Amino acid sequence: NILGKAPGDPKLDDIYTIGKQLGKGAFGIVRQATKKVNGDVLAVKSISKSKLMCKEDVKDVQGEVAIMNLVAGHQNVVTLKSTHEDKESVHLVMELCAGGELFDTIVEAGNFTEKKAAQVFRKMVEVVHHCQELGVMHRDLKPENFLLTSKGPEGELKLTDFGLGVFFKHNERFKDLVGSPYYVAPEVLRKNYGHEADMWSLGVILYILLSGLPPFWGDTEEQIFKMVLRGHVDFKTEPWPKLSDAAKDCVKKLLEQDVSKRATAVQILKHDWLVKEGIALDVSL
Ligand code: ADP
Ligand code: MG
């Protein structure tokens, strides 16, 4: 019993009708779930117990639930509605993000205008700041883990997948090598990092939002890691020459190798680029 459920606690199938698959990850599968009493459509992430190999994996699932409950309440975090457990799986029932992954929206768009990128990116920084204030590092920030409540301009951005998230104390250092190759910070590869690693990942995401391409790439994981550690960021290739200096400066301050010089969430929220694009946005409304 991973989530400390009592035998009489409601089972997933008592409350929900399970529908089509929405996504798939390392440990489980995400499907649509319709609440029997009122027809509410939600999403359920089912984590197969057979894939939880060690105590650490079990702890990660417990952590994912604890973190989702803690960071809930921010408008850009996916809300956890209920949890269930049976012999085979642990189930996390969440609000449905019918717009899918931000990843797919980027692929469709190629890249975003500066204004659109700034609008989306501000929300990302705000939600990461919210997590940091509560002592949570996500450790897997990437466009696949930012979902949209619907397609179209009214779609709200929601951060999800706290499966690799951890609680951190002030100045605490971590050494687990986790995350996704394109987005991983150099200090994570060096196995000595703190919550600043999330800011690096945001820098990678911003670079992709603006250009459609990852800043560090290669054919193999090793090659990608080599590029991350080298840390050279290309601003010469299209569309970078056409983009504003403020946008480039924002990316540079996040993709800063020296953790003590890397921009914090608060610094980015006050950065000229976000402020300027934010004002321009208000005027157009
Ligand atoms: P994993 O830890 O396996 O990556 P995620 O929580 O990221 O699991 O979920 C995997 C995928 O399932 C997501 O990238 C997304 O496509 C889809 N998904 C997850 N949660 C939801 C949700 N609440 N609404 C819609 N789709 C979701
Ligand atoms: Mg994921």
Automatic annotation (TrEMBL):
UniProt KW keywords: ATP-binding, Calcium, Kinase, Nucleotide-binding, Serine/threonine-protein kinase, Transferase
Domain Protein kinase: residue ranges: 16-274
Family per similarity comment: Belongs to the protein kinase superfamily.
Lipid metabolism recorded as keyword: no
Protein name, as recorded: Calcium-dependent protein kinase
Claim: Iron-sulfur is one of the keywords in the record: no
GO molecular function, one term: calcium ion binding
Residues reported to bind ATP: 45
